Amino acid sequence: MPDNSSPRIGVVLEAFLDQQLAGVLGWLRQAAPEITHLEVGAGGYAPHPHCDVTALLASRQARTDWLDLARRHGFAVDALNAWGNPLHPDPELAARHDTDLRNAIRLATLLGVDRVVAMAGCPAALPGDRAPHFGAGGWLPYLEGVYEQQWQRQVAPYWSGLAEFARAENPGLLVCLELHPGTVAFNVETFERVASLGPSIAANLDPSHFFWMGMDGHKVATRLVGHAHGKDVIFHPENLALNGLLDRRWPDPPDQMPWTFAVPGQGHDLDWWAGLVRALAPSPMKVISIEHEDPFVPATAGVPAAARLLAAAIAEAGP
């Protein structure tokens, strides 16, 4: 059992979209008693059948009832998740994701929740383009300078404004950007540049993304972290040898991919996860939320297994 200085274990409810909230909570209490916290989808690309944002924003009684349902099953809500792309070149989609993120911040404040998980987004390469462009390299002439143009036109103006909005709503709330390939914050350098735009911006550390990019998750965890996801990666040697880490078909078919997401412990052992807990200790991170995306293991098996592994890692790491 972790002491009060140790991180708690949560779960991202997106793994259980086909179930009613009360049913999910009852099952979790029995199948994964190590889990005490919930991360709930609230908009953007995140499906949110367990969180009616409009109704909860409109009614104090609805918020009380919703929180009481979680508490009766022994859970606290530690984060809302509104991952999306508020920088999308489609203005309607960008506006919708921006509204969803702001509403998630408003709702979190009303609920007493101080973490909103999001993504930094990805704009077009040039004005007038219709598709986002991931500006992750300048090794060919048509890629040179794309990231800097995106930064000046959209990234810096948007995230400085969003950080101001979040701080005005709740100075203690952190918007935790998941360092994710395909967005403008995908490693420490790009994240810290966005984080410099306002103190309300922190990181959501998901080590699975670092594994396949060749980053050191323990070192990354010593930097600006406000929240964490628990997810692993397994490499498939034959597919990796033939096609490398990048694959146009990802994530399907999973048996042909060079790597796939996995239940924590499947790709990296208990000692690695205990080391992650130790690396996270100085940060304001309070909960490691299991994000189940293993294509070979159902959530009903993977989430309890992940909870056991993370509980063992927290115990091994010590206070």
Structural features:
319 residues, alpha/beta, eight-stranded parallel beta barrel, two-stranded antiparallel ribbon, 11 helices, 10 strands, 41% helix, globular
Secondary structure: elements and pairs:
Blueprint: E1 8-12, H1 21-31, E2 35-41, H2 53-58, H3 60-72, E3 76-81, H4 91-111, E4 115-118, H5 146-169, E5 174-178, H6 188-195, E6 201-205, H7 207-213, H8 217-221, E7 227-230, E8 232-235, H9 237-243, E9 259-262, H10 270-280, E10 287-290, H11 299-317
Parallel strand pairs: 1-2, 1-10, 2-3, 3-4, 4-5, 5-6, 6-7, 7-10
Antiparallel strand pairs: 8-9
Strand order of the largest sheet: 1-2-3-4-5-6-7-10
The beta-strand count equals 10
Order of helices and strands: EHEHHEHEHEHEHHEEHEHEH
Most strands sheet: 8 strands, parallel, barrel
Mean pLDDT, as a whole number? 96
Q: What do you see in this structure?
A:
By secondary structure, this protein is an alpha/beta fold. It has helices at residues 21-31, 53-58, 60-72, 91-111, 146-169, 188-195, 207-213, 217-221, 237-243, 270-280, 299-317, and strands spanning 8-12, 35-41, 76-81, 115-118, 174-178, 201-205, 227-230, 232-235, 259-262, 287-290. Helix 4 packs parallel to helix 5 (146-169) and helix 10 (270-280) crosses helix 11. The radius of gyration is 19 Å and the shape is globular. The mean pLDDT is 96.
Short structural summary:
With 319 residues, the protein is of the alpha/beta class.
